[in-house]
């Protein structure tokens, strides 16, 4: 009975070959099936590399703006501590040659500290 209904429908609505949907070859289907994820993978990878490049550039800026000055501040702190130590030695030792020997490194440390600070001026009066 189902065959009779199918036959009557086919006779009442004839379909030509040009009206049938075109089927793709298996190779084309596989190409689409594999090619689309591969293209997405390459695109996502390229976006990831671009993001890493931007992150590295930002971290380089942070390093140059924050870490390098922190090291220079540490060097300046060490030079100031050294100058204070030499000042204290000069004050404690009342002998003129010991006091002169203790004060001698202070101008050198002051000049090294000024070299680390751009635009620094010498206000201490030492070494003039």
Reading the helices and strands in chain order gives HHHH
The low-confidence runs, each spanning 5 or more residues with pLDDT under 50, are none
Fraction in helix: over 70%
Task: Please report the total strand number as a whole number.
Answer: 0
Beta-strand portion reads under 5%
Query: What is the averaged pLDDT score?
Result: 78
Summarize the biggest pleated sheet.
none
Q: What integer value in Å does the Rg equal?
A: 42 Å
* Number of helical segments with 4 or more residues: 4
| Structural category | mainly alpha
* Distance between the ends: 120 Å
Descriptive tags:
single chain; 128 residues; mainly alpha; 4 helices; 77% helix; 0% strand
Characterise this structure:
This protein is mainly alpha-helical and about 130 residues long. It is built from 4 helices and no strands. Helix 2 (about 25-90) packs antiparallel against helix 3 and helix 2 runs antiparallel to helix 4 (about 105-115). The protein is rod-shaped. The termini are far apart. The mean pLDDT is about 80.
Give the topology, please.
Elements: H1 2-12, H2 26-92, H3 96-103, H4 105-116
Helix pairs in contact: 2-3, 2-4
Summarize the structure.
This protein is an all-alpha fold and 128 residues long. It contains 4 helices and no strands.
């Amino acid at each position: 009975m189902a065959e009779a209904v199918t036959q009557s429908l086919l006779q009442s609505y004839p379909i030509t070959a040009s009206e049938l949907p075109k089927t793709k070859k298996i190779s084309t289907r596989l190409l689409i099936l594999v090619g689309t994820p591969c293209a997405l993978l390459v695109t996502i990878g390229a976006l990831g590399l671009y993001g890493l490049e931007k992150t590295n550039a930002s971290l380089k800026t942070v390093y140059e703006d924050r870490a390098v000055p922190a090291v220079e501040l540490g060097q300046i702190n060490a030079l100031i501590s050294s100058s204070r130590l030499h000042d204290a030695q000069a004050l404690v030792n009342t002998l003129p040659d010991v006091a002169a020997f203790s004060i001698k490194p202070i101008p050198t440390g002051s000049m090294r500290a000024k070299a680390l600070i751009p635009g620094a001026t010498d206000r201490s009066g030492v070494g003039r």
